[in-house]
């Protein structure tokens, strides 16, 4: 008898289920499995969008014979780091296992296969948006940015502060979807370089966003897009919003929902907010997700009118795969050195690392034999990587252990950033 176990035969395990990259011809069946996995029965295959997003070799299926019972997709993206560098990362999405086949290790197999391939390709980290909090920690991911939104009652807000100046000589125009598709990408490219935690938006993103291709399971409704151009005619901001048409008897009681807000400077932001807070019939504004450091409430006549949105929670999860590349690429607030003992059951980040930075903000992670100041898992380190989480807070929660008193605060001074990392985009 052959000594070759089924587990060693081209990804087929003892249960007969094979994990492999799909072909383009299998995209329809794979897409149907995604819909079933996300509890949406009978949806169209959405082939046009899926074709746009197909990266050869990176769309995985778990196959039991012909039947696709698990799905997993990754694609290349870039993460803006503190300091403005763009780190190539693997973005993971469309993770599903059919209900009849769950808890048999299929996600674990797809994830481990894809993370190993990402590391091979030289992607220093993987990112994803987690459907549920408890799925991805076991694979070394940690929450690294938060969703941050506001509900604003316009009767209480008293508009924007009177002393705030909008852009001098700028103008606002409502634009249609074809124009948004034309001008949005270049504006976003400029904007994302100044926002740690932001990611790139590809062609598929803009086409889906503007309704040029449909995404199965999502009811697309054309939003409003208002563009701000400065006195020289350069596009410096965009706000995308929807209106929920509500009436209280004979009185308008509409809600304006801000879906996307990109402003390159404060005068642009002020002009856009002033517009959004003064649309006729609108009595309340929901800002679904905006940077945690965005000053929005402080721009209002009464900041208490902005109440935190109920979905404010963890958003981008990050899994470090190559500490030397990842920590060498970001910048640091100043000089410092903290030695970390990192636990990583899958090995990528495991070991003792000195995280150090010079006065000019250039830093690195290097393997060391020095005594460790702090012990933590790779997921906690992923949470700290972009600077949006604090080591002191994780230490208080027992998720980081100080071996030297004060080490958590020393790490915060090293990795903390002037502008909190934030990512507006689900994927
Ligand atoms: C990036 C994204 O696409 S997020 C979307 C994720 N998908 C969904 O939420 C859709 C509905 N859920 C599913 O499709 C599946 O349940 C999945 C993909 C979440 C999990 O797939 P499975 O194949 O069941 O996971 P697998 O068997 O590998 O589980 C590994 C471990 O994670 C645990 N686990 C898996 N899912 C969950 C969960 N939702 N909550 C808590 N623990 C979980 C398992 O119990 C198991 O633990 P163990 O190792 O201690 O036994």
Automatic annotation (TrEMBL):
Active site feature: 136, 427
Top-level lineage group: Bacteria
Keywords: Acyltransferase, Transferase
All copies of domain N-acetyltransferase, residue ranges: 17-165
Residues of the signal peptide: none
SUPFAM superfamilies: Acyl-CoA N-acyltransferases (Nat) (SSF55729), SCP-like (SSF55718)
Entry binding sites for acetyl-CoA: 95-97, 103-108
Subunit structure: Homohexamer; trimer of dimers.
Similarity comment: family membership: Belongs to the acetyltransferase Eis family.
Protein name: GNAT family N-acetyltransferase
Organism per entry: Kitasatospora nipponensis
């Amino acid at each position: 008898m052959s000594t070759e176990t089924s587990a060693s035969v081209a990804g087929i395990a003892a249960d007969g289920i094979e994990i492999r990259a799909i072909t383009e011809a299998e995209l329809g069946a794979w897409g149907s499995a995604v819909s079933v996995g996300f509890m949406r029965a009978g949806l169209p295959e959405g082939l046009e969008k899926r074709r746009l997003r197909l990266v050869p070799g990176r769309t995985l299926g778990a196959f039991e014979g012909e039947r696709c019972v698990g799905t997993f997709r990754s694609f290349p993206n870039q993460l803006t780091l503190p300091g403005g560098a763009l780190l190539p990362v693997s973005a993971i999405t469309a993770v599903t296992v059919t209900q009849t086949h769950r808890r048999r290790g299929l996600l674990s197999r797809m994830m481990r296969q894809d993370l190993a391939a990402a590391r091979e390709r030289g992607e220093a980290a993987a990112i994803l948006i987690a459907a549920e909090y408890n799925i991805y920690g076991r694979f070394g991911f940690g929450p690294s940015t938060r969703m941050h939104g506001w509900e604003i009652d316009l009767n209480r807000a008293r508009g924007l502060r009177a002393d705030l100046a909008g852009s001098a000589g700028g103008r606002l125009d409502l634009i249609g979807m074809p124009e948004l598709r034309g001008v949005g990408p270049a504006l976003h490219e400029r904007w994302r370089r100044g926002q740690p935690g932001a990611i790139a938006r590809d062609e598929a993103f803009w086409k889906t966003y503007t309704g040029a291709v449909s995404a199965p399971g999502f009811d697309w409704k054309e939003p409003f897009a208002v563009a701000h151009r400065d006195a020289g005619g350069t596009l410096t901001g965009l706000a995308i919003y929807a209106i929920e048409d509500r009436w209280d008897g004979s009185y308008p009681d509409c809600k304006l929902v801000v879906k996307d807000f990109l402003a390159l400077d404060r005068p642009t932001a002020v002009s856009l907010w002033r517009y959004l807070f003064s649309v006729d019939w609108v009595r309340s504004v929901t800002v679904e997700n905006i940077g945690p450091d965005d000053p929005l409430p402080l721009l209002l006549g009464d900041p208490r009118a902005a109440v935190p949105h109920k979905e404010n929670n963890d958003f981008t999860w990050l899994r470090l795969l190559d500490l030397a590349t990842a920590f060498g690429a970001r910048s640091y607030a100043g000089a410092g050195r903290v030695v970390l003992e990192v636990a990583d059951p899958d090995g990528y980040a495991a070991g003792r690392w000195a995280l150090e930075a010079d006065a000019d903000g250039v830093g690195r992670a290097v393997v060391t034999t020095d005594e460790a100041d702090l012990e933590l898992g790779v997921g906690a380190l992923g949470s700290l990587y972009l600077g949006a989480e604090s080591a002191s807070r994780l230490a208080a929660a027992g998720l980081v252990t100080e071996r030297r008193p004060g080490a958590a605060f020393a790490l915060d001074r090293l990795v903390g950033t002037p502008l909190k990392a934030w990512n507006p985009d689900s994927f």
